[in-house]
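Q: I'm writing up a methods section and want to include an example of the input and output format. Could you take the sequence below and give the corresponding predicted structure tokens, formatted cleanly so I can copy it straight into the document?
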Amino acid sequence: FCEKTKISLLVPVPALNLGRRRVFSSKFTAVCFHPRKNAVVARSCSPSALVNPTVFFDIAVGSQPLGRVSFELFADKVPKTAENFRALSTGEKGFGYKGSCFHRIEKLEDENFLLKHTGPGILSMANAGPNTNGPQFFICTAKTEWLDDKHVVFGRVKEGMSIVEAMEHFGSENGQTSKKVTIANCGQL
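A: Here is the clean output for your methods example:
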């Protein structure tokens, strides 16, 4: 659904539609990542996925650092989805979220819907319907239970929720950012 709003990077999303139903209100309830170009999705599941890894994003607004957000990935519940996000965060396959210079999209199946959108900080896959996950994700900034069983929850903000909240200030009603918000650096802790 991020493609429909033409979001360029980490951007607050005020209103999105899934079918005929409006999903978000005029208050921001998610920060959504959408690569500038299409992206390759990492597809391996290594032993590191058995432990819940922590990855980080260093966020910049314009050329100024905003801060670091770290995420716990729920590899114990959704190992394939968590490993894919971890590998894209580290760039270990030669591509990833840093710089967001992607060139192709491959869809992934919905792994499961065991985890729910219980409140701020939930990390979830953006998709265009069942089994269409790619590199797009969003970070909830409010409880979004209507997304349960439609979007795979695969992590949570561990530290840096104040950075996610600060990012919301650069959003607008049409989804465009007032300043360029980027993932300046990322990796695994």
